[in-house]
Specification:
Largest sheet: 6 strands, parallel
Number of domains: 3
Helix content: 25-40%
Number of strands: 20
Family: Belongs to the MurCDEF family.
Distance between the termini: 62 Å
GO cellular component, one term: cytoplasm
Shape: globular
CATH class of the largest domain: Alpha Beta
Pfam families: Mur_ligase_C, Mur_ligase_M, MurD-like_N
Structural class: alpha/beta
Main location: cytoplasm
CATH topology of the largest domain: UDP-N-acetylmuramoyl-L-alanine:D-glutamate ligase
Radius of gyration: 22 Å
CATH superfamily of the largest domain: Mur-like, catalytic domain
EC number: 6.3.2.9
């Protein structure tokens, strides 16, 4: 009997899982409660994979041998309650992909902030050193799709806590945990410790031959570490002090010391600026070094990297005002990093779907640096209530075009207009990329 694999959710990860399952001889069925994008429907049709959209057929789903669940489906949904009652095995797409990447090397990166930048930088390191490497996960192509269509020897994977919630055997050779700050708490019963545990699942299957790379300056990580059995070699990084082994900053130089041959780079030569990027650079550098990349190559890659689209991306200057697209800042902490790295006075465009954000962390930076906030969202009340007294001007807008023209009016020569929303984008945009592109288009039309 063929193994019945049901895929719940037909986004990038679901389609990747379907393609891989089909290729491996599973009997695959895809079910999505919402409409499926045309491009994905065509792929399913071409590969003769049956699917349904707009509803779920319970009898088919509950008759599965195994279910691959999209990271977007919460446990408290009606659907998952029924699945759990029936006791069907549920895995995430990264678990399925891992099953069919035996013998490959895996670098997995998680954390509340900086994941995409660190993933892209780590990929750049391996690519630049001539490795056969693919960058997958939450950034671009799903891991399962890559394994099905263009397998590589090395995978650099950006993983979210939702994907880690449904792993069983997934084991990275290098696991990187950047930081843990309150995000998505709505999915973890509003309990921080549930979210922390979920992030730490990245190390649960590691053995002594593997490496766990973590930030020693993160209070949540350090608080949880003693309670967490870790079998792998732990390598910390910090900007607070010198370390015997790990990543640290000393005399304006970044040190990566995991063997007798340390990598040393002046922080002024690093491609990525800002304090938070020192962490991302150290994490990527440690991953490269543990996998045998030569120090010259690591130094060269850390200084030549180009940053990601929608992450502190300079767009253009209009009438002496710089416009910066940080649409990827979907939580408060990301906005903190953006504000922290700015020297000029800021007109901040923010808003969207609020995930129960606590804006108190950015209040001191808003008071110090932000001359106006332009709210862009369907419901801007949470931002207004939290930050109204911290900035001289606050304006409501309902479209990107309006937000951009308003921001330019409020800015003076030498200021920066920064799109750093702190929220999800689904109220007015398809996703954060769509939001960032609309921002860039509106800026270029000024």
């Amino acid at each position: 009997m063929a193994h019945k694999l049901i895929i719940l959710g037909a986004g990038e990860s679901g389609i990747g899982a379907a393609l891989l399952g089909k290729q491996q001889g599973y009997e695959v069925f895809v079910s999505d409660g919402s409409p499926i994008k045309d491009i994905y429907k065509q792929e399913l049709a071409v590969n003769q994979i049956p699917f349904e959209e707009g509803h779920h057929s319970w009898d088919i789903i509950l008759g599965a041998d195994e279910i691959v669940k999209s990271p977007g489906i919460p446990e408290k949904s009606e659907l998952m309650k029924k699945v759990r009652e029936k006791g069907v095995s549920v895995i995430s797409e990264i678990e399925l992909a891992y099953r069919f990447s035996t013998g490959k090397k895996i670098i997995a990166i998680t954390g509340s902030n900086g994941k995409s930048t660190t993933t892209a930088l780590t990929y750049h390191l391996f690519k630049n050193a001539g490795y056969d490497v693919a960058m997958v996960g939450n950034i671009g192509v799903s891991y399962a799709r890559q394994v099905a269509t263009a397998p590589a020897e090395y995978y650099v994977i950006e993983v979210s806590s939702f994907q880690l919630d449904d792993i069983k055997e997934f084991k990275p050779n290098v696991a990187i945990l950047l930081n843990i700050t309150p995000d998505h708490l709505d999915r973890y019963e509003y309990k921080m410790e549930n979210y922390v545990k979920s992030k730490f699942r990245i190390v649960m299957n590691q053995t002594q031959d593997d490496t766990f790379v973590y930030c020693e300056d993160d209070p949540e990580i350090m608080q949880h570490l003693p309670q967490q059995p870790i079998n792998s070699t732990s390598i910390p990084f910090t900007i607070m002090k010198r370390l015997k082994a790990g990543g640290y900053v000393d005399n304006d130089q970044l040190h990566i010391k995991v063997d007798e041959d340390p990598v040393i780079v002046s922080i002024y030569d690093l491609a990525l600026k800002g304090k938070h990027n020192l962490y991302n650079s150290m994490a990527a550098g440690i991953a490269g070094k543990t996998m045998g990349i030569r120090k010259e190559k690591i130094r060269e890659s850390l200084t030549s990297f180009k940053s990601l689209e929608h992450r502190m991306e300079y767009v253009t200057t209009v009438k002496g005002v710089d416009f910066i697209n940080d649409s990827k800042a979907t939580n408060v902490n990301s906005v903190w990093f953006a504000l922290e790295s700015m020297e000029k006075p800021i007109v901040l465009i923010m808003g969207g779907v609020d995930k129960g954000n606590d804006y108190s962390a950015i209040r001191p930076l808003v008071q110090e640096k932000v001359k106006a906030i332009v709210c862009l969202g369907v419901d801007n009340k949470p931002i207004e209530e939290a930050l109204r007294n911290d900035t001289p001007v606050m304006v409501n807008t309902t479209s990107m075009k309006e937000a951009v023209t308003t921001a330019l009016k409020l800015a003076a020569k030498g200021d920066v207009v920064l799109l750093s929303p702190a929220c999800a984008s689904f109220d007015l945009f398809k996703n954060y990329e769509d939001r960032g592109r609309q921002f860039k288009d509106a800026v270029r039309e000024l």
